[in-house]
Amino acid sequence: MEHAEYRCPPPFYHNSRELKVLKRLKTELERQGLPPEELEKLMAVFRDEETAIIQSHIAQHRVELYQTFPGLTFFAPDHAEQSKGVTFTARREHAERIRRSSLLTGERQRFKRLRRLMREALKSLPSGLGSAEAKRRSTELQEMALFKTYGVQYGWDLDFQTFQRLTRKAIERTQGYVQQLLDYLPINHSRQLIFAAGVRNARDFPTLIALAAKSSGAGIISLRTAQEARVIAELALLELEHLIGAYNPDKVDAIRQELISVFEDQVFDPGQSRRLVVVAELDPANDYRVRRDGQGRPLLKVHDESQSEAHQTATSTRMVLPLDVRVIRYNGRSALVYFEERHKEMIFAKLLRKLYREPEHITDHSGLTCVVFDDESSEVLADKLRRTVVVNPGQVWAQMSNAARAGAIDSNNPHSAVDRRGEKYIFRWGGINHELQILDIASYVD
User: Given 74, 242, 298, 399, which is the most exposed site by the fewest CB atoms within 10 A?
Assistant: First the structure.
């Protein structure tokens, strides 16, 4: 949802516990027969308190809304509507109809249903168990309830033990990814952003659901525990969808390794490889990218390992980079190519950034990079790939290139570097999509 409007205040808080208590106190005061002046002063205090309670509920509701729909715009009731004959009661009834049918209200109800489901599952817990066995059995009963209720949604063909293993693996992977993200931050900030110990130690969905519904204490850590548990649970659910889908990591890794074998045996000459050493002068004024001369040519040399020029000392402005390169031979021509492969991690982060839900929409679960050292090598590589890997019509699509234009390779990706020269393709092999990037050596060093 890019943008939406939400008319507030919502009516749900009029039956809140605080306002009910306030209403009873007002009724008691009115019964005591106080002088009118004194009663009016007390009523004014109660009205101010009522306004403060309502505003507090509105602020809390906004926070909950922004967690799911950050694009919402809040605005107060339009008093101009009153002059058009629209009464407050009519507006309130309209808001109530919207609330009853809203996605957010439904999501809150679904979460409450999930909590009831967990409580119902615990009623089957046998009595007389030891503490450790009772904890194990209660978790298992709740996981079985989740397995059954989510089975229709995902339509999965797996047994309960596999479900247990995959859900716990999804949570473990998510916990590790969150820690990786924190490692990018300075230590003084990452320490403040570390999740509460109870959330970090959670290993199953029933524990996360219980923490997300928990409300205890007024300390900084205890107040954020529920939200942190919800974050891990929702991200872990995305990771679970990744694990049970067509692009689960084990399957992708197996297919990619088969594809690499094809590159090793058919694209590259299996009996030929060399070690080259790249010596590049770096420009501190340009984020330590390769320095360029007056004609825009990169100040970069490629040497064979046996040459004396290859044995230079790296400095803050000079990169000395050894690379084991492969050899391609085709139609009497040869080319040197440095080859890298990678797999995509933190799928949930990319799903959130791209506003996708299905991992199948991500094109680079499996990624390959070929680094060439001259234009002719790029042509030889392309010809050899057409004869070995991508041989069928319709097998390759989504070609993107900035080799002859300004801007990023992927102009639709705001995170793509504008000065990274190269080409990118998506191709199908082994039943899944792979992304192939072809870069020149200067762009690779950058």
Answer: 399
The residues that bridge with 187 in the sheet, in sequence order, are: none
C-alpha R_g of the chain: 31
Q: How far apart are CA 401 and CA 405, in angstroms?
A: 8
All domains of the chain, ordered by start, with CATH? 4-101 (no CATH), 126-244 (no CATH), 249-274+324-445 (3.30.460)
Reported as type and span, the H/E element at residue 277 is strand 273-283
Helices 205-212 and 160-183 sit at what angle, rounded to 10 degrees? 60
Question: How far is Cα 73 from Cα 171, in angstroms, rounded to an integer?
Answer: 33
Summarize the confidence of residues 42-52 as an average pLDDT. 81
Choose between 46 and 125: higher pLDDT: 125
Classify strands 300-304 and 366-372 as parallel, antiparallel or unpaired.
Answer: unpaired
- pLDDT of 114 above 60: yes
Which one, of 437, 355, 426, 439, lies nearest residue 396 by Cα?
A: 426
For the stretch 35-46, pLDDT in tens is 878 778 888 887
State the average pLDDT for the chain. Answer: 82
Please tell me whether residue 276 adopts helix, strand or coil conformation. strand
Give the Å distances, CA to CA, from 71 to 6, 114, 243.
Answer: 10, 27, 30
Q: What residue has token string 């205040």?
A: 9
Distance CA 259, CA 149 (A): 38
Rounded to whole angstroms, the Cα distance separating 389 from 425 reads: 13
pLDDT value for 271: 85
State residue 74's pLDDT score: 53
3-state DSSP assignment of residue 157 = coil
The type of residue at 54 is I
Do the Cβ atoms of 341 and 437 come closer than 8 Å?
no
| Separation between Cα atoms, residue 205 and residue 173, nearest integer Å | 13
pTM assigned to the model: 0.64
Identity of residue 419: D
In the numeric block, the tokens 């390769």 are attached to: 290
Binning pLDDT at 50, 70 and 90, where does residue 417 land?
low
Predicted confidence at residue 421, as pLDDT, reads: 59
Report whether pLDDT(80) > 70.
no
Instruction: Tell me whether the omega of the peptide bond preceding residue 9 falls within 30 degrees of 0, making it cis.
Output: yes
d(CA 338, CA 180): 28
pLDDT confidence bin for 28, thresholds 50/70/90: confident
Q: Which pLDDT value is given to residue 4?
A: 46
> Any idea how long the chain is?
446
